[in-house]
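Q: Predict the bound structure with magnesium ion.
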Amino acid sequence: MRIIVQKFGGTSVDGERSRSKCMEHVKREIKNGYQVVVVVSAMGRKGEPYATDTLLSVVESTYLSNREKDLLLSTGELISASVFSSYLCKNGIATTVLTGGQAGIVTDDQFGEAKVLSVNPQRILEELKSGNVVIVTGFQGQTVTGETTTLGRGGSDTSATALGVALNAEFVDIFTDVEGVMTADPRIVKEAQLLKSVTYHEVCNLAYLGAKVIHPRAVEIAQQKNIPIRIRSTFSESMGTVITNKTETNHNVFKERLITGITQTPNLAQIKIMQDSRDVQAEVFRAMEQQGISVDFVNVNESEVVYTVSEEMAENAMRVLAKMQLRPEIKRNCAKVSVVGGGIAEVPGVIAQVVATLAKENITILQAADSHTTIWVLVEGEQMGKAVCALHKEFGLQRAVDYLEFRKLRQKVL
Ligand code: ADP
Ligand code: MG
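A: Predicted complex:
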């Protein structure tokens, strides 16, 4: 059996016009001889009737346990799958709808953020054998004791690649509202370019640092079995971005591509605590951990401890620190802007170039750090867009679209 998994995101299934586009993709692959497994997200984005965020807003979430919240949230995909099923049936395509649990997705019991433990594809295979298109509700699974769980933000991407691996699919196609993985978020950078082929590693780096076009966990799952992912537009026929462990040219991309893209993470708060005679750093990070507050951008020196938390967690973090008799300073509405690329490590000038570019734009760097594949800067939230655009331009990403271009650019920088 040649199997293909097609995942349709929220904006791809939110109305008649988009559903008809999704159906064209299903029909084409049936014609190409594939057995098709569809994974759907809840319909639409925040504010629309059956979107995940809307479902969350129908209750006061403090009065709902995580288990019950997952039951509520899982209905968004159930509605979406049923609607898409009826649409395909109306157009002569036989379908079966399966929940995550029925599709064999077994998770742990971390409600709201469950991890996929295993996938038993038996039921899907049976349905495919009888000639049906199988529509699976994304973003959800079931524990061994039969509890419904959800997989966290971007969870439908994870459903799709986990099924792709279990079914040994030829491709997992993630359909969305952009052409593919781009050199920056096209909502911020008009000139962002499509990356036709990237490695699992590169796209994971981009995704962890804020490019929310695919969830990084989904990429890691596909990578384990080398299942190719294609990120494509629902609204066109183009191939989008192919994610494998190779580039088009079979060259090791880390040797060739200096910078893959620029990403951003908004809504961060920077916390600063003076180090007095007592050694506060260990206490601070232990307290944050106990409260389940994840910290990032940690800088510790003799006089102060500096780190960032998400805006959502900021108040809680400040409360905890006050209880510890500390006097923290907080700077709200910050954003992390990252320059991501496997070639950074080899080229000593990149960080200086980042600093100079932002200085020219009068953008203050609140904090900076680097690793062998990334340079991060923390800036004020209002300056995030300007910073992303300036860095995108500085590194020539508006035109450096193919292998040869990257190579030339790299030679120039070296
Ligand atoms: P879906 O509902 O289909 O899963 P998402 O909103 O999760 O869609 O992901 C698609 C969005 O990701 C795009 O609309 C785009 O704004 C955003 N995005 C952020 N960074 C990038 C990037 N580097 N390349 C492409 N899209 C990006
Ligand atoms: Mg998504």
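A: The CA atoms of residues 95 and 133 lie 5 Å apart.
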